[in-house]
Write a structure and sequence with these properties.
Number of helices: 2
Helix content: under 10%
Oligomer: single chain
Structural class: mainly beta
Distance between the termini: 48 Å
């Protein structure tokens, strides 16, 4: 079913299934040019559509794709002279033909252009004589499908990965290395970034870095490093690139973060009786006065804490890379300065904006520490904070951080008025004019809630479905919380290698009545990566209502990793390469934990390859609904906890998964139905990210080390454990197994404040300790590496904090929308140093807005 973006759910991914080429003197796809020194011959399998292997059928005979079986007919050598060889012959275009549709097979090696293959875009192999691509006939992945040369179109039928075995001298492109990287110079508070380049090695690169300035992160897929440095200082980052064989290279990159150059600060107190000169002693008292000034580099506009302004703040001027203009706060009051848009409406159909806080075609601004609202009685085209690019130019250095944006009565009804929908945000970046983009954009640590429309939205040319060739660069969306939003939480579009991480989205579809939406997703991007995010409690609508979505016009690889989703009405993930466009893409979903989200839907046709591996999916409460999954999908090394009688669909490839509680699909020759032995399995009603640790595995689990090797399976597991790539685990846990937990009754704790004993069927010893008093605490000691807490979750549950050894408190939520659940896992610690630990649980006196109380009930704890 093909849908326009945001009906099947939108955006583009860039699918670079990167070749591991041993062709001397050629560039790796997506990498810097390879070294031209002769490379050693590499031998191994040549894989293509659906992970099938290119196979010979005899001497002077056609080549076909078949299920990989390690036979001699699937052994290819890449000697570095642009040929691909098997059985003493070369891969050859029949009769030296150059017409699309000419079949490809084996022939005696003769040095002709019909036997020369070079890398193209999106994992393609281009024949040098015809300039056409190696292609699976009719886009089929069935065993025995012949191959041909065909017009290069970027579809999955033209995506190939050559052998990744290494020879002497470092493999296909010579020794793996990182090109020289200049020392980086940044300014605190200014969004920026860089992208290293690598050469040599074998296959797809993956990147990591340590020692980056605080506030900056790296996209693993291409090394793009982006963000807003938080404070001045100097240091050295270590950048590491790893190829498909596990070979690594490192480069030290020095960096300096300088303090921003400051100039005059102008003060604004809208509660002041008279309009002053703009000094702290004599502040301005109107937004109009602030809007009348053209600010200069290094200047700042400081709003008084506790004050309220009504209207629009739309200051003029441009900062510089070393002297940004800052909008922030001053004073000693606890409350942020408030700007109330008073129902400001964006002019419909004019591609203009009138948000409460508005920047247009400006450079180097920081917007921070504000409370922003724009409420009204009825919905219309409204936004809270918005950057608008309308001049077809590149702009730079925009940081929006630590703001509280709420009660924006924007437009929820996307299907009724698309223009209104795209200009209704809590926080938005809109560049509807082709050529307009932002280089260096950070949206971080904002609280966005009670929004009609999109929580955080980044869009491009809506008239062309975001299929912009011009793309935002160095885009980081990090640490934001979006709650009670009628539509999507975070949408990122038309960005090159954006990184979306550590965000939380909850209660989407709030007060909603029409349209389709998802939690955190993107379209029109190149190599977007979504990691360490949480999405929960999306209300059901006609379609979508899923946590994640890789949508139309994305190019390269769309990656979701290390995320947690739970209790979303329509499930886990939607992929929609065919939504509004026809870009080829690769979707990777790995090392995520999903609970009570049992739907997985795809609208990709033959445009996408889809790898779903190393995830833990808990669907003990619902039937599986993995509908419309294309046959090219491969599920590997997952732990599926299912409901008796429920079934996963036929069609995809299943390899080495655990299917606990239900019958496995046919075809998985390494299927396991054994209990994977989680350390502390949360109940089906357990609620919140702090229960995820229970899905780690005990020592002796049959899921440890029994998975199958996965191409490019680099990095770590959900909890940060390094991966055993040769013999991986099944599920999101990649460690060696935890000790069997020892359970201790809550009577062993010391209680401070007002606590009482509660009779508690299902609790350890039949009772538990409970309190509704703010500040009441329980303290105990435990010896081990992993500590799990058990308590009671109910409709009157409150919020507690857990502090270990005096460390930063971590909030846990004891509210559940369902029936009261006793003896539930409510928290599992990260892995700790071996030894004795002191744990303190404290009632914060607060609760989820839906809760009718603040009860915190402690039942017991385990240590492993």
């Amino acid at each position: 079913m093909q849908r326009t973006p945001h009906q099947a759910h939108r955006p583009p991914v860039v699918s670079s299934v990167l070749l591991s080429l041993a062709l001397a003197g050629l560039a790796l796809v997506g990498a810097a040019p390879a070294q031209t020194a002769a490379a050693a011959t590499v031998t191994g399998q040549l894989t293509g559509p659906a992970g099938k292997c290119l196979s010979t059928t005899g001497t002077n005979a056609p080549a076909v794709i078949k299920t990989c079986d390690q036979s001699a007919s699937q052994s290819w050598s890449v000697p570095g002279d642009k040929t691909l060889r098997s059985g003493g012959q070369c891969l050859d275009v029949t009769g030296g033909g150059t017409a699309a549709g000419t079949r490809v097979g084996m022939w005696s090696c003769n040095g002709s252009g019909a036997q020369e293959w070079v890398p193209g875009a999106n994992g393609q192999l281009v024949n040098t004589r015809s300039n056409l691509c190696l292609d699976a006939v009719n886009g089929s992945s069935a065993d025995g499908t012949p191959v041909q040369i065909y017009t290069c179109n970027g579809t999955w039928a033209q995506q190939w990965t050559l052998p990744t075995g290494t020879g002497t001298g470092g493999g296909t492109g010579g020794t793996l290395g990182i090109d020289a990287v200049a020392a980086q110079s940044y300014t605190a508070g200014v969004a920026n970034g860089f992208r290293p380049k690598a050469s040599g090695g074998n296959g797809q690169y993956q990147w990591s870095a340590t020692g980056l300035p605080a506030g900056m992160s790296m996209n693993y897929i291409d090394g793009t490093t982006m963000g807003t440095p938080k404070q001045s200082g100097t240091g050295t980052a270590t950048v590491t690139v790893t190829d498909a064989t596990g070979a690594t290279a490192t480069k030290a990159v020095g960096w300096t973060v300088g303090a921003a150059t400051t100039a005059t600060g102008y003060y604004l107190d809208c509660n002041a009786a008279t309009n002053g000169t703009g000094t702290q002693a004599s502040p301005w008292n109107s937004l109009a006065t602030a809007n009348a000034r053209t600010f200069q580099p290094g200047e700042s506009l400081l709003l008084k804490k506790g004050s309220t302004c009504t209207g629009q703040l739309a200051p003029k001027g441009n900062g510089s890379a070393t002297a940004p203009i800052t909008i922030s706060s001053y004073g000693t009051a606890a409350a942020k300065p408030r700007i109330n848009g008073g129902g400001l409406v964006n002019p419909s159909g004019t591609r203009t904006s009138s948000a409460t806080v508005q920047l247009t075609n400006q450079n180097y601004w920081i917007i921070e520490d504000l409370e922003v609202t724009n409420d009204a009685a009825t919905e219309a085209l409204r936004s809270g904070i918005e950057y608008f690019g309308t001049d077809g130019q590149r702009h730079a250095g925009i940081t929006i951080r630590n703001n509280d944006v709420h009660d924006v009565k924007g437009w929820s009804f996307r299907n009724t008025n698309l223009d209104n929908y795209y200009l209704s945000h809590g926080i938005g970046v809109d560049t509807p004019i082709r050529g307009s983009l932002v280089q260096g954009l950070t949206i971080a640590d904002n609280y966005v809630h009670e929004i009609h429309g999109v929580g955080v939205g980044l869009y491009g040319d809506q008239s062309n479905w975001n299929n912009n060739e011009e793309r935002h660069e160095n885009t980081l969306i990090s640490g934001n919380t979006v709650k009670n939003d009628t539509h999507d939480a975070i949408v990122v579009s038309v960005s090159d290698a954006p990184l979306i991480e550590h965000n939380t989205a909850d209660q989407l579809g709030w007060q909603h009545g029409e349209g389709v939406y998802a939690g955190i997703w993107g379209w029109g991007n190149t190599n977007p990566t979504f990691q360490y995010n949480e999405v929960s409690n999306i209300s059901v609508l006609t379609d979508d209502s899923v946590a994640w979505d890789c949508d139309g016009y994305n190019r390269g690889t769309c990656t979701y990793q290390y995320n947690y989703d739970h209790d979303n009405a329509n499930g886990i993930l939607l992929t929609c390469a065919s939504c509004g466009g026809s870009e080829a893409m690769k979707a990777v979903f790995r090392y995520n934990v999903s609970v009570n989200d049992c739907r997985l839907h795809n609208y990709t046709g033959s445009l996408a390859s889809y790898a779903f591996y190393g995830n833990t999916v808990d669907c003990r409460n619902k039937n599986w609904d993995f509908g419309e999954v294309p046959s090219l999908t491969q599920f590997s090394n997952n732990v599926f906890l299912g409901k008796a009688g429920s079934a996963l669909p036929a069609g995809p490839t299943y390899k080495a998964n655990t299917y606990y509680g239900f019958t496995p699909p046919s075809g998985d020759t390494a299927a396991s139905t054994a209990d994977p032995k989680p350390v502390a399995l949360p109940s089906a009603s357990s609620y919140g990210i702090n229960t995820v640790g229970g899905y780690q595995l005990l020592a002796g689990s049959p899921a440890l080390g029994t998975g199958t090797a996965v191409t490019n399976n680099l990095g770590h597991d959900y909890w940060g454990n390094p991966l055993n790539t040769a013999a991986p685990n099944r599920g999101a846990y990649g460690g060696t197994g935890l000790a069997t937990p020892v359970r201790t009754d809550d009577n062993s704790a010391t209680y401070s404040g007002s606590w009482s004993t509660l009779s508690c069927g299902g609790c350890t010893g039949g009772s538990a300790h409970t309190t509704s008093a703010s500040g009441a605490s329980a303290t105990f000691t435990a010896t081990g590496r992993t500590i799990s807490l058990y308590g009671v979750q109910s409709s009157t549950g409150g919020t507690a904090t857990v502090s270990i050894d005096g460390g930063a408190p971590v909030a846990i939520d004891l509210y559940t929308p369902g029936a009261t659940a006793n003896g539930q896992l409510v928290y599992t610690s990260p892995q700790l140093a071996s030894g004795s630990h002191t744990v303190t649980v404290t009632n914060t006196g607060t609760a989820d807005p839906r809760s009718t109380g603040t009860a915190v009930t402690l039942d017991s704890w385990t240590v492993s």
